[in-house]
């Protein structure tokens, strides 16, 4: 294998598109920012067209389970054809197939960048993304068998993606010890961008010079992504939604969620929320997450 895949993994609405825009601008040698409709970091792992291209036949003839068993070798094949490193988005949880093998094969993986976002904010953005109520979004995030594109009676452009619950999704990747991985929080991307994105660039084997990082961050600033979408549209936006880039802020939950909704999310996900600094020692949501540095130094016990 001459190349390798870096997986840009996350539960939906956790900053994956912003991260891909940063990577695209960091790799771009032109002075203009990358068009949001040309963020060509690589196909999403669940793209049916991408998978069919490697298979050489139409995957619609197969069941979801049959396709999943083929996906590891599809990724290996793409790596064998690659001339260098590739960066592919995935919303799939890191799951084990019935044959005992992971669907994301370690031997085709250079690394996995995993993005985590406070579930209190995810619930709001996820509701908007799915065109459903926040209560339904919270229910989906707590369901251990939640999935995208899993209807056996409908052919979607993307393959089935098993998301598990929000907590299950995070733990599946964060604790995948057979992978070289880096876990980054959305809140640190927003509140400490230079240090956070520099760490990301180093992990992804991309340029790490301060000037280049700052330039890429300026080009993919959230207001610029919003403006581009307003002017050109965004091909990843569902027709059901008014916009893809909604707010992108930290702490929207404080103004949006009810006390009951907050309590339900904390009840469902308190272990993982505590681990990643979203709750205090008494289990109460923090308006400003504990820094990862503090967690790592044992200042706050997860």
Key structural traits:
single chain, 302 residues, alpha/beta, Rossmann fold, 4-stranded parallel beta sheet, two-stranded antiparallel sheet, 13 helices, 6 strands
Low-confidence stretches: none
Q: Superfamily at the CATH H level?
A: P-loop containing nucleotide triphosphate hydrolases
Total of helices: 13
Largest sheet: 4 strands, parallel
The proportion of strand residues reads: 5-15%
Quick structural summary:
The chain contains 13 helices and 6 strands.
What topology emerges from the helices and strands here?
Blueprint: E1 4-10, H1 16-27, H2 48-55, H3 64-81, E2 85-90, E3 109-116, H4 119-130, H5 134-142, E4 147-148, E5 161-162, H6 166-174, E6 181-185, H7 186-191, H8 193-203, H9 210-219, H10 222-232, H11 253-256, H12 259-275, H13 292-296
Parallel strand pairs: 1-2, 1-3, 3-6
Antiparallel strand pairs: 4-5
Helix pairs in contact: 1-9, 4-5, 5-12, 6-12, 8-9
Account of the protein in words:
The protein is α/β, with parallel strands linked by helices and 302 residues long. The chain has one domain (4-245): Rossmann fold. The chain is built from 13 helices and six strands. The chain has helices spanning 16-27, 48-55, 64-81, 119-130, 134-142, 166-174, 186-191, 193-203, 210-219, 222-232, 253-256, 259-275, 292-296, and strands at residues 4-10, 85-90, 109-116, 147-148, 161-162, 181-185. A four-stranded parallel sheet has the order 2-1-3-6, sandwiched between helices. It has a two-stranded antiparallel sheet with strand order 4-5. The longest helix is centred in the first third of the chain and has 18 residues, at 64-81. It is globular and about 50 Å long. The mean pLDDT is 89.
